[in-house]
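Worked example 3 (structure in, sequence out).
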């Protein structure tokens, strides 16, 4: 689920980048058909760029580098972010619930809108004329959806023919399919406010495209057409799946009709989208989705392989992995996910492999807890410590002292609780002790 949330966020961010480029550089050009296709491409491109990175396998091996006196904090950044994501799993569940609640509400709204349109058609007078279906209904405005053109009964006998021609062009261009795709995308990305502005931009381009086509193919007097638009300039209309002649963007349409055609050479500016695609592909890479990131180490000791307490042996283990234990007399026994090692308070605890301290803090029943992230998805946990020697984010080597045994948290006496995990699955630590 964390990966799905990451996918939604990264994909949304790529979509926002493309849309901003359109607003800043392309939206004022009179290449309406091209602008329409460019806007529609933003949807699959933003998704595909993210999915490609999402499903591309990465190398989870160890990257060996020469020893340095200081390791840059940038080396540990991804590891720390991953652990923080794991520690906030409850927040992720809440976010997932909120997300799917939003999806449900948005999807219900879309379905309800379609059902309302179908009911309106079914109870109205329908007349077929070639590929166009004219529906005379109890409505106040002319609009089109798919090949249906809805006309108010009250004005069916004296409606301006230019308005009908306008809606026919929407049908010819199949603009409803564009809007349906946008609405489906909006269902999945309802939380992204830019999508709502995108929908408005797409409908605006539709109107520009139709205005140009009506004036060109019908050889309409531009003054008469402008007067017709101006008469409806204050009308407010719906913005869902339908295409209205009376759009709230009529002022923009007037300006675009009167505007000089953009020089064809300006089409080269659309090539800027190519390097932006490349940059997004490189920037939002697969490392953002995979929890098994490679860990940079200074030697080959990247997998847990030594005993976690100095001068202690297997003989000092008081509770083994996999045993049923009663951690609280009022609760049922649970399987022990690690091993307990007896030791007096203050005995040095060492890292069992190279890695990064992704946690070093007090954690309830765990007491003072250290978690180290290692290569290939391994983790080691050290609980009930008395104190820490290193802080969160520190890079450690195998055998280095990281803290001291104690009796903190839910503990029946001084000891170390030690766990080994691989891809979040607990393993028997004795399998990793030489």
């Amino acid at each position: 689920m964390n990966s799905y949330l990451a996918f939604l966020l990264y994909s949304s961010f790529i979509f926002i980048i493309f849309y901003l480029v359109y607003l800043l550089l392309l939206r004022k050009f009179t290449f309406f058909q091209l602008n329409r296709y460019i806007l529609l491409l933003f949807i699959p491109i933003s998704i595909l760029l993210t999915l490609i990175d999402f499903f591309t396998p990465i190398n989870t091996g160890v990257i060996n580098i020469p020893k340095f006196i200081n390791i840059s904090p940038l080396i540990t950044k991804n590891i720390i972010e991953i652990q923080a994501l794991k520690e906030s799993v409850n927040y992720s569940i809440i976010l997932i619930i909120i997300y799917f609640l939003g999806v449900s509400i948005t999807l219900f709204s879309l379905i309800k809108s379609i059902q309302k349109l179908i009911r309106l058609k079914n109870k109205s007078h329908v007349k077929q004329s070639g590929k166009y279906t004219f529906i005379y209904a109890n409505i106040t405005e002319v609009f089109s959806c798919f090949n249906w053109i809805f006309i108010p009964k009250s004005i069916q006998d004296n409606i301006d023919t230019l308005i009908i021609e306008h809606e026919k062009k929407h049908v010819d261009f199949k603009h409803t399919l564009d809007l349906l795709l946008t609405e489906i995308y909006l269902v999945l990305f309802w939380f992204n406010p830019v999508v709502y502005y995108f929908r408005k931009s797409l409908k605006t381009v539709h109107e520009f495209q139709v205005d140009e086509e009506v004036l060109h193919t019908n050889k309409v007097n531009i003054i008469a057409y402008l007067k017709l638009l101006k008469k409806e300039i204050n009308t407010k209309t719906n913005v869902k799946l339908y295409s209205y002649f009376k759009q709230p963007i009529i002022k923009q349409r007037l300006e675009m009709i009167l505007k000089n055609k953009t020089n064809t050479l300006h089409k080269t500016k659309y090539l800027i989208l190519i390097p932006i695609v490349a940059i997004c592909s490189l920037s939002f890479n697969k490392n953002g989705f995979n929890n098994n990131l490679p860990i940079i180490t200074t030697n080959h000791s990247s997998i847990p392989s030594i005993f976690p307490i100095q001068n202690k042996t297997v003989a000092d283990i008081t509770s083994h992995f996999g045993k049923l234990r009663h951690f609280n007399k009022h609760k049922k026994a649970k399987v022990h996910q690690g091993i307990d090692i007896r030791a007096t308070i203050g005995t040095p605890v060492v890292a069992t492999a190279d890695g990064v301290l992704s946690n070093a803090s007090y954690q309830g029943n765990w007491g003072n807890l250290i978690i180290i992230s290692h290569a290939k998805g391994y983790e080691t946990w050290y609980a009930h410590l008395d104190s820490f020697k290193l802080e969160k984010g520190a890079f450690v080597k195998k055998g280095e002292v990281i803290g001291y045994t104690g009796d903190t948290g839910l503990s029946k006496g001084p000891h170390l609780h030690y766990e080994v995990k691989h891809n979040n699955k607990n393993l028997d630590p004795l399998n990793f002790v030489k």
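Notes: The longest helix spans residues 89-122. The first strand starts at residue 63 and ends at 64.
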